[in-house]
UniProtKB/TrEMBL annotation:
This protein's name: Transcriptional regulator IclR family
Domain named HTH iclR-type: residues: 7-67
Protein source organism: Caballeronia insecticola
Domain IclR-ED, residue spans: 68-248
PANTHER family noted in UniProt: HELIX-TURN-HELIX TRANSCRIPTIONAL REGULATOR, ICLR FAMILY (PTHR30136), HTH-TYPE TRANSCRIPTIONAL REPRESSOR ALLR (PTHR30136:SF24)
SUPFAM superfamilies per UniProt: GAF domain-like, Winged helix' DNA-binding domain
Biological-process GO terms, alphabetical: negative regulation of DNA-templated transcription
GO molecular function annotations of the record: DNA binding; DNA-binding transcription factor activity
Keywords: DNA-binding, Plasmid, Transcription, Transcription regulation
Record Pfam families: HTH_IclR, IclR_C
Top-level taxon: Bacteria
Length: 248
């Protein structure tokens, strides 16, 4: 097995960016030094360099993630023509159903939200861009896991799964049965497994030329759903996934 080499400066920069991304407000240099374990002199040199690159910005008495890093991150969806195809398809879905649409990729055992188009009315969401959730508990994650073989899912997930809410599936065997049904129907459904009062419907798009596994979903408060509307939304999200698959 080849030895993994690490570049200390890059690792330290990554630690700084991770700390800023996880914070809800600007992080002071003294706090960063304590969290990361760097000397003040080394830390200030790195902060100055990252600020010049616009990867971070000085805000009040601390630092936040900068606009330059946001621009680089957006290249992740531009390279596969995902962004343009998603916006076109999501716009049509929203015009018809007036519900939010989200795009996510699979990263190990998590989903990472990479794009979102909002409806014309507010909805309570947990899907800020760049945020991640355990794949086993959300419809997007289940749609993505259904694109894998059972053997791969078993390798990645333990027998006991984390409970995000009381309704989250916590047994791998139960999840595997649900994934089999998703492969047959082409649709993943989740009710209150991530957030109380919220249902999510998702469909697997496929693998992009760059090797990203992609799925699309919509999240709807249970109070806005009846049997007829749920059927319409399910059909719409499957059609949107097919549109994106064709565009890629």
């Amino acid at each position: 097995m080849e030895k993994a080499y690490d570049v200390p400066a890059l690792r330290r920069a990554s630690d700084i960016l991770d700390a800023l991304a996880a914070a809800a407000k600007p992080v002071r240099a003294a706090t960063l030094a304590e969290q990361i374990g760097l000397s003040r002199s080394t830390l200030y040199l790195m902060l100055e360099t990252l600020a010049r690159m616009q990867w971070i910005e000085k805000r009040d008495d601390g630092y936040v993630v900068g606009v330059g890093l946001f621009e680089l991150g957006n290249a992740y969806v531009r390279h596969d023509a995902l962004q343009a195809a998603f916006r076109e398809g999501a716009g049509a879905f929203i015009n018809k159903h007036n519900e939010v649409v989200q795009l996510a990729v699979l990263d190990g055992v998590h989903v990472v939200y990479v794009a979102r188009e909002d409806a014309h009315r507010p909805v309570r969401l947990v899907s800020d861009l760049g945020s991640r959730l355990p794949a086993h508990c959300c419809a997007l994650g289940k749609a993505l896991l259904a694109g894998l073989a059972d053997e791969t899912v078993i390798e990645r997930l333990p027998e006991r799964l984390e409970a995000v809410t009381p309704r989250t599936i916590t047994r791998r065997a139960a999840l595997l049965r649900e994934l089999a049904a998703i492969r047959t129907s082409g649709l993943a459904v989740e009710r209150e497994e991530v957030a109380e009062g919220l249902a999510c419907f998702a469909a697997y798009v496929g693998m992009t030329p760059a090797g990203k596994r992609v799925a699309v979903s919509t999240s709807v408060p249970l109070g806005r759903l009846d049997a007829k509307r749920e059927k319409q939304i399910c059909i719409g999200i499957v059609q949107l996934a097919a549109h994106l698959r064709g565009a890629l």
